[in-house]
Amino acid sequence: MRTLLLLSVIFTWLCAGSARAGDDIDLANVPVAPGMDQPPPVGRAQIIGLDRLSSPHSWFGGWSGMAWDGDDLVLVSDLGHWARLRPVLAASGRPTAVDLVAHGPLGDVGTDKKWADAEEILRTDHGWAVAFERRHRVWIYPDRLDGPHVALSTPVAMADLSANGGIEAMTILADGRWLLIAEGDQDRPDSPAWVGRPGEWRPLRFRHHGLFRPTGAVTLPGGDVVVVERRFTMIGGPALRLVGIKASAIGEDETIGGEELALILAPLAVDNFESIAVRRRPDGRLVALILADDNFNPLQSTLLLTVLLPE
């Protein structure tokens, strides 16, 4: 996770009316961009809406991983905290309210950021899998996120990743294999990645697109994978890219890449988007919720983007 600064113009986008959602979480509509009544095309995907989550709690923020668990969204943060949120979804798939169900510190991580920097979360048959960077590892929490853990047998080469270049994207493929993608380094054309099962890993490379770096991944019901990529430059500000990867292409070659589904740039309201969770809405279409990590920075926001994925 790298600290990103949000362009100050975003404050003009955060002035829309808000709706109370539960006792501890506010959900406020955010205009996608100034002066636009409808979201513009962003590629093959379609923006449904953009919302800001806020809370008076000092622990709320820094959310880098997100996954569905039934009707709840479970989040993990840079500072070793977890939260369970229950959104109320409109037929479009966009949240209209969010309740805080439970929260607490992740088990066995303490308060040292070297150990507590959680970047991704995944629901598995054996419990919750959480990927950490700085002290690179994947831990399985069999029962509760605030309980004891079991260390996953990860690729040995993960230990060589840079402190801020750890596993940002993690998902389980339809055939049961795991896919791990590191953020990687700025001066390389690709990021380290691995596919396989605990103790049986095959190294891959995830191809970079310019300055974009992978920050999240999810496996779709049909088996394909969507990867979230983010970019930040002082001139262009933050940007978001969604990439679709065919299931059949993962593991065939040493380098993997995909098709661009969406590209979201300023002047659209965009922040440090890192995590993604997907579910099917009543009409059968797949909707992605994409969450921004605010880094506990007052110039950033916990934005929740709702995107309709292409058919």
Automatic annotation (TrEMBL):
The keyword Zinc does not apply. The keyword Transport does not apply. It holds the Pfam family Phytase-like. Residues 1-21 form the signal peptide. It comes from the Bacteria. Residues 59-296 form the Phytase-like domain. Keywords: Signal. This is Phytase-like domain-containing protein. It comes from Magnetospirillum moscoviense.
